[in-house]
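tl;dr need the bound structure. longer version: we got a ligand (magnesium ion) that a collaborator sent over and nobodys looked at where it sits. i said id run it. heres the input, straight from their email, havent touched it
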Amino acid sequence: MTSSTISDLLSKQNTLQEVQVKGWVRTFRANRFIALNDGSTLNNIQCVVDFENTDEAILKRITTGAAVSIKGTLTESQGKGQNVEIQVTSLEILGDSDPESYPIQPKKHSFEFLRENAHLRTRTNTFSAVMRLRSSLSFAIHKYFNENGFYYMHTPIITGSDAEGAGEMFHVTNLNLKNPPLTETGEIDYKEDFFGKETNLTVSGQLEAEAYAMSLGKVYTFGPTFRAENSNTSRHLAEFWMIEPEVAFMDLAGNMDLAEDFMKSVLSYILKHNREDLEFLEKRLLDEEKTKPQAERSDMSLIEKINFVVENNFKRVSYTEAIDILKDCKPNKKKKFKYIINEWGADLQSEHERFLVEKHFKCPVILFDYPADIKAFYMRLNEDGKTVRAMDILFPGIGEMVGGSQREERLDVLKEKMKALNIDEEELWWYLDLRKYGTAVHSGFGLGFERLVMFATGMGNIRDVIPFPRTPQNADF
Ligand code: 4AD
Ligand code: MG
């Protein structure tokens, strides 16, 4: 007999079939009722053991966390909460668990504790639901691009360039760090290194994606990116996944349309396909909210929030308009912000972004046309000579979800910008080539996948939406 998944069995109408199922014991009650889970669904299947005819030694080994294989008859359930259950005819212990030391006891655990047990935390309802949603979202992302004529490209993980110019990169080397080769002036001699130059883990696949957009038209990357920024916040990881579409002949307005349509599409997908997990997480969130003061509680449930994003237009606001709003707002005037907004040109901190989306507009906001000085070198300079065609998409509860722009396609303007920022032309010779040979308007953006998963699951800490998080001082597992 081949074994079935619990998800399959629970959806079966016709009972009295002989079935086999394998999974992990969540609980074992009254020497009789096993709640079994195999990860295929949030729900457990109840397996009823005939304890009078079962060896006592076996009964003792049915403990929380043990892996078991069960054969039995699928029957209509007498108990509440499930339609079907299994009357066990034979049970094999595949792997014992030690009930004393097994970390995932059938009770509420703190997320901190579960982070320390990240290898086992997907045996809880919350984390299995989050990770099933994460998987569905990534599928929906590939589906969206595939159905819209994009090619999936794999951009390099090891790179010689700093795409964001932020300098927060992890070095990649195989030099002996105890005794590295030195140049005559005493610097590390990277000519001796594996690649014959200094290399890093990529912070973004954008520059390479641009090269492919300028030949294949519409491309996207979806891969891991690395940032050595020492920001120990609930929204930053040192290793995170980014989705980066890049499209030839598309301007900033097209970029905004694409980003909005894309996000609505992938969120609709999970509303349709992951109802059970979403409803579970929604309930979890409601319980969590009850512990908060009234003023901090959200007026929408998780599914309502997702629906709201799917059904409403994102608000498009220029940086200049945003600054006017911020300058005049209460928390700025009453000096409640940590960083007071005094004048045009100020970089927006997350407190300002959150004010705009959560208090002022109360919906996702696309901020565009930022001052050139606070944005990356590759962004298209506007005719005013001081702003660039950048866009950030801000989400309630998350802050920045997307960062993107129309790219500077004019060789002379780009070169001038690089010179002003001391970016080596020799390093990016190939990037400049794209402007020399058949240059054209093109645009793209980067969406932080974990921030999307946070929004979709209502989880408050980015460490809880990626299987094994990497953060400062932490690379366990
Ligand atoms: O705004 P960023 O830095 O944009 C870029 O890297 C562009 N090259 C993308 C492009 O145009 N192709 O990063 C994009 C997004 C952010 O909006 C945020 O959602 C996410 O990546 N992000 C992070 N997510 C988790 N941890 C971090 N440390 C992140 N840094 C950025
Ligand atoms: Mg950004």
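gonna send this back to them w/ a short note. The mean pLDDT is 95.
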